[in-house]
Specification:
CATH class of the largest domain: Alpha Beta
Largest sheet: 7 strands, antiparallel
Oligomer: single chain
CATH topology of the largest domain: Antithrombin, Chain I, domain 2
Radius of gyration: 23 Å
Number of domains: 2
Strand order of the largest sheet: 1-18-17-9-8-7-10
Shape: elongated
Structural class: alpha+beta
Length: about 400
């Protein structure tokens, strides 16, 4: 199954907007959130429908079909496991049309025993990510009517492995640390390039995996924010910013962290690309409601009324929305995973014998960004910003 360019642009656009609102070292997956927003948009009404459609980047009546298409395409990608899950109270009757639009075998039941239900949801998250994520990022209570969740896990091995060794950056925020450095060389000069973007110059290095899942490392000019660098990376993917490849760069300082020099040698050798970067191991937990405008959830948070008449006749609102993510970049390959969960609670006036809860919502030798993507479609599956790379240890053992 193929995914349309409009859907890819919509998902990647959400990646860029999320990046622009992020701070510090982090990893996140818009591809894990987007299908859930799309299914919610399909069942929403009133202002919530309009806001969700804007966040999704497609008309609400097209969103569910695009989500099914995206899930089908991701399910066919080598190296990527993805799943969608829905759990509801036994007493919540879903609209037949909306439920039928979800993937087969996605629907489970909440028993009302919060401890048992949470254990079952955690087990689903562990199974669907191969143990990379250890639980479902949701807290169940008596007001929970429905949980809508997604999981994805991607794994790739490098076509050309790195060598690891200790590296000591000479300047910048990592200059006082001994880091787990990664080095390799090749004759493929065009794996690297420089783009002149409105936010500044960005160096892009493509690290190719053996299953068409690649990681692009992005280094911006000094002072560029994480959002600016990652946004530029998305623009490069969408061909909005031209990239000058390594084979066409001028001599001298050609871009951030990039130089082109002439060297003498005792024998004829082809032009060479030498890469030095660092290993990283990131995990992050995101409260999506802190960025409710980015995700189109502002109106849907109002628990005084229902917002999803297309999902059920019972009034529903968003109680919580969270994502747990991780990413690991090393000598042999890359791993990333994300589990996203929406807790859907009762909205509107309480009905007899129904509980309604009120929730109180109180050389890449300096920070750089990365995009993990499907090579052929250019769909971004995970993105992040590296501020705290792995330290070098004498007894380091690779687990890839």
């Amino acid at each position: 199954m193929r995914v349309t360019n409009a859907t890819i642009r919509a998902v990647n656009g959400l990646t860029a907007r999320w990046a622009s609102a992020s701070e510090g070292g982090t990893v996140f997956s818009a591809a894990g959130v987007w299908p859930l927003l799309a299914f919610l948009a399909d069942g929403a009404g009133g202002p919530a429908r309009e806001e969700l459609a804007e966040a999704v980047g497609l008309p609400a009546d097209e969103a569910a079909g695009a989500a099914r298409e995206l899930l089908g395409a991701m399910g066919a990608m080598r190296g990527l496991d993805s799943a969608l899950g829905l759990w509801t109270r036994r007493t919540l009757e879903l609209r037949e049309r909306w439920e039928a639009g979800l993937p087969a075998q996605a629907h489970g039941v909440l028993t009302g025993n919060a401890k048992a239900d949470k254990a079952a949801l955690d087990a689903w998250a562990v199974k669907r990510t191969g143990g990379l994520i250890d639980g479902m990022p949701v807290q169940l209570d008596r007001g929970t009517e429905m949980v809508l969740a997604s999981a994805l896990a991607l794994r790739t091995e490098w076509l050309r492995r790195f060598r690891d060794w200790p590296t000591l950056p000479e300047a910048g925020p990592w200059s006082d640390r001994t880091l787990l450095g990664l080095y390799r060389r090749s004759t493929l000069l065009d794996r690297v390039g420089v783009a002149d973007t409105p936010a500044g110059h960005v160096t892009e290095l493509k690290v190719l995996g053996d299953n068409a899942i690649d990681v692009h490392l992005l280094l911006g000019e000094e002072g560029m924010t994480a959002g600016a660098v990652l946004g530029a990376g998305v623009g490069i993917l969408e061909r909005r910013h031209a990239v000058v490849p390594g084979s066409r760069l001028p001599y001298g300082e050609a871009g951030p962290g990039l130089s082109v020099v002439k060297q003498r040698n005792t024998r004829p050798v082809p032009p060479t690309l030498e890469v030095e970067t660092v290993a990283f191991d990131l995990d992050a937990h995101h409260d999506l409601l802190q960025l409710h405008r980015v995700f189109g959830l502002t109106s849907a948070l109002d628990t005084s009324r229902g917002h999803f008449p297309g999902i059920a006749g019972f009034p529903l609102a968003i109680g919580s929305a969270r994502q747990s993510t991780m990413a690991r970049f090393g000598e042999l390959g890359f791993r990333a995973a994300a589990v996203t969960a929406f807790d859907v609670v009762a909205g509107g006036a309480p009905l007899p014998d129904r509980w309604v809860t009120t929730t109180v919502r109180a050389t890449y030798d300096r920070p750089f960004g990365f995009l993990a993507l499907h090579r052929h479609s250019r769909l971004v599956l995970a993105a992040g910003w590296v501020t705290d790379p792995e330290p070098y240890r004498e007894d380091e053992e690779d687990d890839y």
